[in-house]
Amino acid sequence: MNAIGLPQEQATILANSLNNLLANFQIYYQNLRGLHWNIKGRRFFELHVKFEELYTDAQLKIDMIAERILTLGETPFHTFESYLSKNTLPIGENVFEDEDAVKLILQCLQRLLILERQTIKLASEIDDEGTTTLVSDLISKQEKNIWMFHAWIA
After folding, report:
1. Is the dihedral of CA 26, 31, 32, 34 positive or negative?
2. Among 115, 110, 95, 123, which residue's Cα sits nearest to residue 32?
3. Which residues, in sequence order, are CB contacts of 11 under 8 Å at separation 6+?
4. For residue range 2-30, what is the model confidence (pLDDT) as tens digits?
5. Which residues, including other chains, have CB under 8 Å from residue 153's CB and lie 6 or more apart?
6. Cα–Cα distance, 145 to 99 (Å, whole number)
7. In sequence order, which residues have a C-beta less than 8 Å from that of residue 89 and are 6 or more positions away?
């Protein structure tokens, strides 16, 4: 058992899943920063503010994921090399147009949901309520953002 009473081997597997999520969140965060900096067009003011809201939120989530990995007794990824090697998200380079930016965000959120659902399944299997709650909260907010961005595009 680890320090919080979870089976060590399964906690390590769960921490690896969280590290993959962390790496992908870091790419998502960087995509949002780039969109915030580079957005152009008639919806500039609306999206510039929204992208800042999203990257500020992502930064908090990154910290929560990393701290959960530490709570499980493991070490969170903390290099760009690690982030890129585990990333499964599209990387948004030179995205300037409003709809392209929102489509990139949607793709990222949808991929993050897949990773989160894989992680929550692992957490549930070992009765890890702390990780389950953390990831459940991530999923809930992201599903709402997906709905809102789909409404925006329509």
Report:
1. positive
2. 95
3. 2, 72, 73, 74, 126, 128
4. 999 999 999 999 999 999 999 999 999 99
5. 99, 102, 103, 106
6. 15
7. 24, 27, 28, 31, 107, 108, 111, 112
Nearest C-alpha neighbor of 78 from the set 65, 93, 94, 97 = 65
Q: Sign of dihedral through CA atoms 132, 138, 140, 146?
A: negative
23: tokens are 């790496």
CA nearest to 147, candidates 95, 105, 119? 105
> Which whole-number Å values give the CA distances from 83 to 26, 29, 80, 89, 127, in the listed order?
7, 11, 5, 11, 28
Using CA of residue 61, residue 62, residue 63, residue 67, what is the dihedral sign?
Answer: positive
pLDDT tens digits along 67-79: 999 999 999 999 9
Cα distance between residue 19 and residue 73, in whole Å: 12
